[in-house]
Amino acid sequence: MKARVVRFAFALHRWMGVILGLLMLMWCLSGIVMIWAPYPSTTLGSRDFRIEGLAPIALPERVVLPEVPEAATLSSARVEMLGDRPVIALAWQGEQGGRGLFDLSTARKIENIGEAEALKVAQVYVARHGIEGAPSVKRLAERDEFTVAGYFNSGRPYYEVRLNDADETMLYVASTTGEVRQRTTGSLRLTSWLGAIPHWLYFAELRKDAALWGQVIIWTSLAGCFLTVLGLFVGIRQFRRRHSTNRLASPYRGAKFWHHMTGLVFGVLVLTFTFSGFASMQPWGWLESGPRVGEAVDRLAGKPSTWADVRPALEAQLGTLRAASIETVQLSYSQKDGGPFFIRRLADGSRQRLAASGQPAPFDAAAQHRAASLLAGEGATPVIDLMTRADTFYYPGAAASDFPVVRITVPEMEDTRFYLDPVTGDVRFVADPGARGFRWWHMALHTFDVIGSPIREIVILLAMLGVTAVCAFGAWIGIRKLARGGKLDNLPEN
After folding, report:
1. DSSP label at 204?
2. Alpha-carbon span 416 to 382, nearest angstrom
3. Residues of 109-121 as b/e, b for ≥16 C-beta within 10 angstroms?
4. Bridge partners of 249?
5. Contact, 469 vs 258, CB < 8 A?
6. Residue 492 has pLDDT above 80, yes or no
7. Long-range Cβ pairs for the range 248-255 (8 Å, 24+)
8. What integer pLDDT is reported at residue 392 of this predicted model?
9. How far is 438 from 440, CA to CA, in rounded Å?
């Protein structure tokens, strides 16, 4: 019986290797590329290319706000330029909930963005960034490998606009809002096809069904873990003392010998990378944030403001904006402590937090203590710190990269940490037990980010080369086995 089980384990390992070998090799090779090549985004560190590409807000002689039900609670509001015309993006809830983009000159709802307007957005972007290029629209497309995530759904389809510059930059302009939602360059597109796209299985046809894509990642990575555990069992069992030489040795030759040897050395790392990839999907609710975090954030926001409350405050903000001598590229609504605040983004990249009256309302010590008490709830004793450098859970490359940040720790909530923007008071990141588990089970094991640069890059590259060797020899053995018609050899006799 024991011999039968062992033979079955050997055969199962080999057939699973045939099925998963090339996939795991692809994960390894693309993972090496991703050490240095990120997936494209409109942000890079603290830079926001979309915001930098907006023209300063130029209000019309007479601002006309859209008609929204007075009792509707406001979800979001944002004023900025759509190319060369001022617009406001609104979302509200209630019996007549809705959302839309409205022209501030006429209050007319903009149902969709035409090609000419998308081109104008790109032309303004080029001018603001000082890029030498003449934009041209390539096509209007529902999705491609750079617009597959759920974040992009509300903007579909997208105008793909070439900037025709030296970097071969492509902007993706949402046909619903005119926002630049994605930015790629020639080099980023190439490295993404070699790195992030195959590594995350970000193929457009698969990724458009988010539920299916998630299940594929979960079950293939889990199968990869099982394959690796079987491989470790097989490898250790076969590395035995031989009667003829009285030495520990492998019974294999050629590619099988090298797969055996590299597997013994790097097999645990194969399991580490595969399992941490599985953990990245937070399967079945594992490593997700608990309900207490959502309740705390709701307390910080307070009772939602109605359009009747926000409209006069917004009118005051626009009046202040018209009189201001500084260039503003965006004005956005923020709900805090049951009342409206507004965030003004200036052309120089700085931001200001404003009260409903339009006067400055900095997120100072008093505001921080008030936020801490709301987040913590009654009877708790939160601790407030102003962080100027990374801690274990908030650091560049993972949670965020912007400093300083206000950290509020609540011991009564299992030492949950809230990281708040020091200008706006918005919650940037929360490290509750689920997020802390994600940090160790995924980030630490998958990226080795507990090691500082540049040592980290060297260590993870060496580890990835070893893991790639294991998978490459395994994949080659699988291909050869298929070429032989699936014949199994070298199975143990006992």
Report:
1. H
2. 10
3. ebeebeeebbbbb
4. 240
5. yes
6. no
7. 251/490, 252/490, 255/473, 255/476, 255/477, 255/480
8. 93
9. 5
- Residue 493: the pLDDT is 56
Separation between Cα atoms, residue 401 and residue 474, nearest integer Å: 39
CB atoms within 10 A of CB 474: 30
If we measure between CA atoms, which residue out of 222, 264, 257, 258 comes closest to residue 24?
222
pLDDT at residue 412 in the model: 96
How many alpha carbons fall within 13 Å on the CB side of residue 87?
24
Determine the Cα–Cα distance for residues 117 and 369; give it in Å rounded to an integer.
Answer: 45
296 closest CA partner among 364, 379, 374, 406: 374
Q: Say what the pTM is.
A: 0.93
Q: What 3-state class would DSSP assign to 405?
A: strand
Read off the tokens for 313: 């405050």
Q: What is the 3-state secondary structure (H, E, C) of 427-470?
A: EEEEECHHHHHHHHHHHHHHHCCCCCCCHHHHHHHHHHHHHHHH
The residue written with tokens 């405050």 in the block is 313
**Could you tell me the end-to-end alpha-carbon distance of the chain, in angstroms, rounded to an integer?**
10
Closest CA to 152 of 280, 39, 291, 293: 39
Q: What is the largest CA-CA distance in the chain?
A: 96
Token look-up 């603290």 returns 46
| pLDDT attached to residue 129 | 96
Q: Which two tokens stand for residue 262?
A: 């590299």
Side-chain-side CA neighbours of residue 403 (13 Å): 12
| pLDDT at 232 > cutoff 70 | yes
Host H or E run for residue 201: none
Question: For 133, what's the count of Cα atoms within 13 Å in the CB-facing half-sphere?
Answer: 24
Q: What is the mean pLDDT of residues 152-159?
A: 96
Cα–Cα distance measured from residue 86 to residue 63, given in angstroms and rounded to the nearest whole number: 9
Query: From the DSSP assignment, how many helices (H) and strands (E) are in the chain?
Result: 14, 18
